[in-house]
Structures are given as C-alpha cells and as structure tokens.
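This protein record is not my work; I was only asked to verify it. The record follows directly below this note.
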Amino acid sequence: WHVAPSHVHSQFEALDGAIDARGFNLVRAAGKEHVVKTSQHDALQGECHWYRSIPPSLADLFPKPLEVVDGPTAVEGDGFWMIRMTRVAGVTFSHLATSRLLMKAWIRRLVRELHRIHSQQPVPGTAAAAELKATNAELCYNYAAKVASRWKKHEALYTTLGEETGLDLRKMKDCTVGFLEEFEASERAQHAFYIHGDPVFSNVIRTADDGIALIDMRGELGGRLTTQGDVQYDLSKVYQSLCGYDFMMLDQAPDAATSEVFDGLRAVFWEEVQKLYPSVLHRDVRLITASHFFSMVPLHELRSRMARYLRASSSMLMVEGLM
C-alpha cells in the first residue's frame, strides 16, 4: 500500500502511515472508520476474491469488507478495482520490528493464526467448496517458474547488479531454480484451502485491542482466482521478515543488539512451526525465502535495496550448502 501521488484528487483522504509498496494500489481513508483501496491494475482482483471468500470463522483476522467491486469499474472517470473496508486501529509488525518492540509472544500468535487459516475447510455450499483442489503444479506456480521468468525478463538488470555486488547471480539463479524444481518434483508442497499469500510484517497488524489483523491477501495462483496455496509459502514470507526484510526496506542494517533479538524471534518461530507443522522441512522454508529475496529484485526501484536482497539470498544459499 502507498499514499496517492500528489496529482491524484479524490473524495478520499491520504492514509497516514501508508506503506511504500510496488506502485500497484492506492489506499486512502474514507472518514475515520473506513479505508478504500483502489487499483488501475488487475493485481487487486485476487484480494477482491479473498475478501469475498472469507469464512465466518476467520472474519476476526481481517478488516470487514463493506464493498468489493471487481474492475474495471468507473471511479472518478477511471477504471478501478475497489475494496471499501473497515479501518483497523493498531500498529504493523513491521513498525514494531524496526522499532525493536516486537516480542516473541507475537511471533507465536502470528504463526498460530496462520495455522488457523491453513486448517480452515471451505464452508459447504459456498463457491470455495465447489472449487477444484489446486494441483501440485499450481501450488508450486510461484516457485521455480517465477524465478526463471523474472531472470529471463530482467537478465540485464541482474547482470549489472552482479557486477556491482560481485555476486555470481547466474549461479545463484541456477541453484535456486534447481532446488525449487526438485521441491516441486518431490511434491513437498502442502496444500491448504486458505493461505494469506504475503504475510510479511507490513501486512500484519497488532490491533488496539491486542489482536492480530491481516491485510493485503493475494487470492490468486497462476492466473486462477483462489485462496488455496502451499502453507510453506506463508511461512517463508514470515521468515522473510524475520531475516530483516523490513530493515532492508528502510535501507538500514540491524545493529548487534537487534540481531540478537531477531535470533530469539526466529527461534520461537521455528518452535511454533515444529509444533504446528511437523511435516514441514525447515530447510525448505529457508530456501523458499532465499528465492523470494532473489526474485523480488525487479519489483523495487532502489538499487541499494536490490543489493541487500541479493546479499541476503546469497548468504542463505551458502548456509544451506547450495553455493
């Protein structure tokens, strides 16, 4: 989410504290109680689908959708997808993390709430219940194929970044794609009818009443609108933030004391994963996270951030013995 550019005029107010994102969506306040999210890009259609599909038993984890309009629809003369939702009072885990205020108990709660989502079955008689179960190929759509596609489309960018950082990015790409292809061939993806799709800390809110609210769900898999996915994708996104992603977004490097705090946060994360997801291989989650850092590079504009992502990915690949 990000605030509207200065040339955009509307009936809605800019949302204080909105997060600088990839430029797809606008999030604006509509009075004190509501938020309106709009997009001229079909990236919002998956989230529209997610809001329409929220089971009653999970409704407490998300803003309440008041109006969901699939685009393109006319808003102030332009084509838009739109979601009007309740405004959630609270602070993001991203803000807590970068302020050194994120506690271990909240990591435990986040993993447990994600497990609630992953354990949810479709309500009989709903559209979700009538959906075809996602295949292994669909569950793995955002893995090897995505990394290979990003490399092919942005090879020139990766080449120059490799020269600037001194990293062998082609070898990193080959190692990453090779692991992800083996992951898919071994059918280690673990199906859930509901995954969030991007639970990085900027999309997790500690609410004013000490609850957790989740925003920016994805709701799309390989061009198909669905809430289904691989549970390890969600876990890897949490781990992405536990590896310092929010600091990278601020072009900051954690100091020694902060690094020690994050060591503790990662430890409790793995404790919860071991308890709630006993069949998940921790190495798989770590390497999927490494693939995120590698493939997200073209989605960001600052080269300093790109270099941080690539160094993080390289370090993880080396620790896991792939480089």
